[in-house]
Amino acid sequence: MCGIAGGIWPQSTDPQAQLAAAMRSMQYRGPDDRGLLAVDINDSVVGLAHVRLSILDLSAAGHQPMQSLDGRWAMVFNGEIYNYRELRSELQAVGYIFKSDTDTEVLLNAWAHWGVDCLPRLSGMFAFAILDRLASTLTCVRDAFGIKPLFYCLNPGQGFRFASEPQSLFQLLSFKPSVNWQRAYDYLVHADYDSNTDTFFAGVNHLLPGHLITVNLADHKLASPSRWWSPRTDENVNWTFADAVSQVREQFLLNISQHMRSDVPIGAALSGGIDSSAVVCAIRHLEPDLPINTFSYIAIDGVSEERWVDSINQHVDAIPHKIYFGRDDLIRDLDELIFCQAEPFGSTSIYAQHRVFAKAKEHGIKVVLDGQGADEMLAGYIGYPGQRLRSLLDNLDMKQAYQFFRSWSAWPGRTKTQALKYLAAETTRGSLYSFLRSVNGRNSSPPWLNVQALQDAGIQLTEPRQFPDHLNGRHVVASLALALSRKGLPSLLRHADRNSMYSSIESRVPFLTLDLVDLLLSMPEHFLISNQGQTKHVFRHAMRGIVPDEVLYRRDKIGFETPEAHLLANLYPVARDWLSTEFDIPLLDHTMLTSIFDAQYASNPMRSRQLWRLLNFCRWHQLCLN
């Protein structure tokens, strides 16, 4: 797990000072080693830089940039390839020689041997750049789910540059960061971010999950990003539920086994829900004698999951580490968190995660396994009721649709009105959808916006909706495919990457492998969310005997949340300052914004997620752009 940076410079330029500055700006991503390489090719200089967090083969043999034995290839790599041992055996069988026990060398040789075709073979998380001296190309690649980040910029006067973090990328560029106002609007009004190639910084993109991009050094042309993986949504009609349960259990345990490969201590994040509990219990199932360190955020003033955390820790005989914090802690650390994330984010739950990784670092842990991604592949959260109803209605299964509607609505925290709203959102488009949003109190042009300035700048004042590529009458599965690759999961993975790397921790997500995703998305939808409205149906059955039944079948699980209103209740003095007119943010009508803020704070402080986004954005603007 590391940080990477690089790009292409004119031949008369020495990029080493810029590369060194980029490495210094992300030293926490790789405190164990650093290296850079500058190569003259044609009329250009290709620069590659790397900071290393040593996880596999801690020796100097893992130093990067790494070059192939024949000198053709040079690579910088951020991530882990969990099936590197199996791939290494394949490559050795056809004559490749290895000088280290690193997954980096396996990836380098896999690319040399199979090219792009090696990517679907990889079980892992990765962002890497590879230079082909013979073909005069530089190719950047990102893993299927976007677990590891890759930001890039193609500036007409400067050429192509890339890095693991925006701050590091700007060390390679001569211009200062400015706001992408379309992305800012999407975030502030519609809570949409990390869902397309745009970042919050004008002119800076991130490579989408499952994509690669190539620069031809002969003509300096940057090819359009191409997609090397997309989720398959066609149903395998031969499934039986018993077979599905068996295969999910087998694949998940294999994932856990491979994700435990490490030459440094590992731990696990434990929230008390089924996903993190399954990770922890599967570790114990596979390794009966392994010490397991768990790290859990425990809410003081909100809904606490401590009972469930304690139950799992006792079940596996873990070494528990609990994280508690209050309002003063958040205010103290908020600037650090905003800097760490580098771009605005959705809620204070990101602070809880930030503290979890900091606690792991305190206890000498360098690898933490996490349950992220399970909801997006198992129809979690509240079970995609609108999509499931639409699938049943499309197939004219009216009786089952009505039964599902009643059963889903009977669960705690759900209502029939909610089910109908979700169905309406799933089935409406255009002006009708906008009308229903307005009836529900959602305004695309709230009064605190400087609407005229945005219109003059060409900003689209509409919700940036995305729709699945392929439906095939399987609306739940199609929505899961969208959530995995474009809308939903990418932002959560960004939060985790930045929080974990800031503490020099490698965060591993064993649910997110191509084999497990392909397996689950090929199943009938009622395997994922049962006809009785139970989410993660097949996975709960697959974990029987590994995870205690009381956790598998609990009905009161909440998402990973913090008591946001309570935490922010005494933020008024500094928040009012952040929103003041002295800061030049043309997107906002500061007079109207502060008036609304005062009124809302007096009646029900910090009740609105939108208000939190405004505070977060304004403070980010001050810290990261001024």
Q: Which architecture of the largest domain would the CATH scheme give at its second level?
A: 4-Layer Sandwich
CATH class of the largest domain equals Alpha Beta
Q: Please estimate the helix content.
A: 40-55%
Low-confidence stretches: none
N-to-C span: 31 Å
Give the overall shape, derived from the CA principal axes: globular
Kindly provide the radius of gyration, computed on alpha-carbon positions and rounded to a whole number of angstroms. 24 Å
Notes on the protein architecture:
The protein is an alpha+beta fold and 626 residues long. It folds into 3 domains: 2-179 and 194-227, Aminohydrolase, N-terminal nucleophile (Ntn) domain (Glutamine Phosphoribosylpyrophosphate, subunit 1, domain 1), CATH 3.60.20; 241-377 and 486-552, Rossmann fold; 564-625, no CATH class. Helices cover 42% and strands 15% of the residues. It is built from 26 helices and 18 strands. The strands form 3 sheets. Strands 4, 5, 6, 7, 11, 12 and 13 form a 7-stranded antiparallel β-sheet that branches. A 6-stranded antiparallel β-sheet has the order 2-3-1-9-8-10. A hairpin with a 4-residue loop joins β11 and β12 (221-222). α12 runs antiparallel to α13. The longest helix is centred in the middle third of the chain and has 19 residues, at 241-259. The chain is globular, with a radius of gyration of 24 Å.
